[in-house]
Amino acid sequence: MEYLKFCFVFSCWVKFALCVFSTDTPQPPAAIPKEKLLVLTVATEETDGFLRFMKSANYFKYNVKVLGMGEPWKGGDVGRSIGGGQKVRLLKEAMEALADQEDLVVLTVDSYDLIFAGGPEEILRKFQQANHKVLFAADGLIWPDKKLADKYPSVRSGKRYLNSGGIIGYAPFINKVVTQWNLHDNDDDQLFYTKIYVDPLQRHTLNMTLDHKCQIFQNLNGAIDEVLLKFGTNLVRVRNTVYDSLPVVVHGNGNTKMYLNHLANYVPNTWNYEHGCSHCDDDILDLSQLKEYPNVLVGVFIEQPTPFLPEFFHRLLTLDYPKDKLKVFVHNNEVYHEKHIQKFWEENRNVFNTFKVVGPEENLSQGEARNMGMDICRTDVTCDFYFSMDSDVMLTNRQTLKLLVEQNRKIIGPLVTRHGKLWSNFWGGLSLDGYYARSEDYIDIVQRKRVGLWNIPFMAHVYLVKGSTLRNELKERNYFVLGKLDPDMALCRNSREMTSHREKDSPSPESFHMLRPPKGVFMYMTNRHDFGRLISTANYNTSHYNNDLWQIFENPTDWKEKYIHSNYSRIFTENVMEEPCPDVFWFPVFSQKACDEIVEEMEHYGSWSGGKNEDKRISGGYETVPTDDIHMKQIGYEKEWLHFIREFISPVTLKVFSGYFTKGYAVMNFVVKYTPERQAYLRPHHDSSTFTINIALNAKDTDFQGGGCRFHRYNCSVASQRKGWSLMHPGRLTHLHEGLPTTNGTRYIAVSFIDP
Ligand SMILES: *[C@@H]1O[C@H](CO)[C@@H](O)[C@H](O)[C@H]1NC(C)=O
Ligand SMILES: *[C@@H]1O[C@H](CO)[C@@H](O)[C@H](O)[C@H]1NC(C)=O
Ligand SMILES: *[C@@H]1O[C@H](CO)[C@@H](O)[C@H](O)[C@H]1NC(C)=O
Ligand SMILES: *[C@@H]1O[C@H](CO)[C@@H](O)[C@H](O)[C@H]1NC(C)=O
Ligand SMILES: *[C@@H]1O[C@H](CO)[C@@H](O)[C@H](O)[C@H]1NC(C)=O
Ligand SMILES: *[C@@H]1O[C@H](CO)[C@@H](O)[C@H](O)[C@H]1NC(C)=O
């Protein structure tokens, strides 16, 4: 009988073996249906990270059960010290009810710093391929007990050590693991799992292994260089380039949270090339549906002499937002700007709900001032938003504040950049030691080739914070004293992030206050619209009378906006130009402000030549047809003036003297003053120029009477001079001309002899 039985078993085995080996394509085990996958995660609070996790889980239709919500967290500060035992305890409790479901697959993952990049079918397929009952995430770094390294089985390739941020296994087996837990909530979960795993007997009987080659789990700690974004038509994945895998679970463990934030700006479907931003309209606050607009405290920080400050304030005034909903707090650190603020205050103090200024006499540090602004909103329960704006931010988009409020995020800033440069108000990346790092998408975001809402690590210059966020996540005051602004601040607890080196196109923490997201809060930057620009405050010389005139090089866009006639560009688009006499062209070039400020600058300088023939300012020292004038050179404006000619006059010559292009070489550049009391007219003369420009700097009949220019050959006069308009005419031979008498008041013109 024994023999027969053996024989039966033997033949049976042989048959089975034959059967197996004779089949060309062995049938893979039936796929586990996706209903059999249950995701368990522990989260005690609905942080931004948790909500992001849930969003990615819902996108792939995972069945998720959250453990511990609302419980106080007792698991320690995971990531910095050991802890996390509470997670195992909660899991152990949850597994008791699931232990006998043999075909249930449980996936247990962290949630604050983790996202899904693929769906349940894929996870289950890969789990089946791993052919084990329990699979842990793997890590190249060992934590927390380095002494256990030798006890790990060696691996030929792949990551050797266990990471407890991700575990997948059959319910009865997971249960057998976690049921061994008898430690405290603040004991270390990873150490607990590690000890079970490195025990050869347990490893065998519980049929455990690690996901050595990141088929399912990608831990980013120590692995940032391994991963790339892989853009598909609908999905964006993370690709592990070392193992050529597409991990399904991406975990920003250790200090890689900021890097995960970067990946999650794309993964799984946050942004891609096909559809752009998919989350941008989530949670929008529709202002048109509100009875009243939210109250905003606007904090304005003038921490250094800043060009175009009156224009900055003008933009604040013209923001499209009900002004009675705006309270304004200004910190002005510069005596130089007191006159600008005084003027604005006198004209507009009643426009806003309140307008409060803290001046230089208070001697506040930048950090103190910024905290003060935040505190005003924090301690006022009616303050819905705090809008912080540095004086170098030119919001050209009047909708900016509305758009930011509507975006309804805890912290959000609009992208502003230095005109035509890569310099912006945010950092896209952060190196692991907290220094500035350029993210791979930085340039595309700055140039708005990728448009959306970006979760970023650092921001400066302009941002909107919810009042409720200030009163909750940011209630700890002085959180924002950041910046290597003075040696004392090196002691501040966040200083590590701020001691960054300077990179050419990055905002520098040495000179800018930067905002860093508080723990658990995402900070967004939007480039969905063109919001405005950052102006340069470098090389701002405030020793002139109207200093912005000198900004033509440093801030050309703002200079043009302030000083060039608003119809100037229509010369080229609509031929806005007149020819009052043959070959005498007349066109708008200067704004009223430019005219006023140049005249003021000259009168401030005051040393008019008196119209004498002897003139030490010119070569030869003798002027045959002298005017009562001041040369641009005398006020230190020669370089700027010649640049103005190149930028704004040359294009006009090209147009009217068909193809004549001047490089703007001009030796005589001056402002002439005509007044009956001194010199009222100029006798007929030729100019020592190829052509001459003659810009009227004030208005006939308002500022003076008479005046004008008469061209003899054609018996033709231009008598009705228009402020800000320039005459342009050939200097020699054909265009003998004279300055007609000014009969009352004072007339000013700016003249250049070009290409002499
Ligand atoms: C582990 O489990 C798989 C099936 O899930 C089985 O095929 C394999 O033989 C087991 N390994 C060990 C060492 O028990
Ligand atoms: C302003 O503060 C700085 C540093 O706190 C101090 O050195 C300086 O003396 C103060 N100046 C005045 C005028 O109080
Ligand atoms: C600022 O302008 C004044 C007056 O033109 C000049 O004397 C001074 O050198 C300038 N300062 C700098 C730093 O350029
Ligand atoms: C520009 O031209 C338009 C149309 O001719 C005119 O109405 C407007 O006043 C001009 N702007 C200025 C600043 O002169
Ligand atoms: C010049 O024009 C004025 C009118 O515009 C006319 O009275 C005068 O006779 C003209 N002179 C010459 C020399 O043509
Ligand atoms: C000169 O201008 C002043 C003020 O603009 C005016 O009061 C005066 O009447 C003018 N004189 C003549 C002669 O037009």
TrEMBL record:
It is found in: Endoplasmic reticulum membrane; Rough endoplasmic reticulum. Residues 664-756 form the Fe2OG dioxygenase domain. It catalyses: L-lysyl-[collagen] + 2-oxoglutarate + O2 = (5R)-5-hydroxy-L-lysyl-[collagen] + succinate + CO2. Its cofactor is Fe(2+); L-ascorbate. It comes from the Eukaryota. Keywords: Dioxygenase, Endoplasmic reticulum, Glycoprotein, Iron, Membrane, Metal-binding, Oxidoreductase, Signal, Vitamin C. It is a peripheral membrane protein. Its EC number is 1.14.11.4. One of its GO terms (molecular function) is procollagen-lysine 5-dioxygenase activity. InterPro entries: Collagen_mod_GT25, GT_PLOD, IPNS-like_FE2OG_OXY, Nucleotide-diphossugar_trans, Oxoglu/Fe-dep_dioxygenase_dom, Pro_4_hyd_alph, Procol_lys_dOase. SMART domains: P4Hc. Residues 1-19 form the signal peptide. One of its GO terms (cellular component) is rough endoplasmic reticulum. PANTHER family: PROCOLLAGEN-LYSINE,2-OXOGLUTARATE 5-DIOXYGENASE 2, PROCOLLAGEN-LYSINE,2-OXOGLUTARATE 5-DIOXYGENASE/GLYCOSYLTRANSFERASE 25 FAMILY MEMBER. This is procollagen-lysine 5-dioxygenase. It comes from Gymnodraco acuticeps.
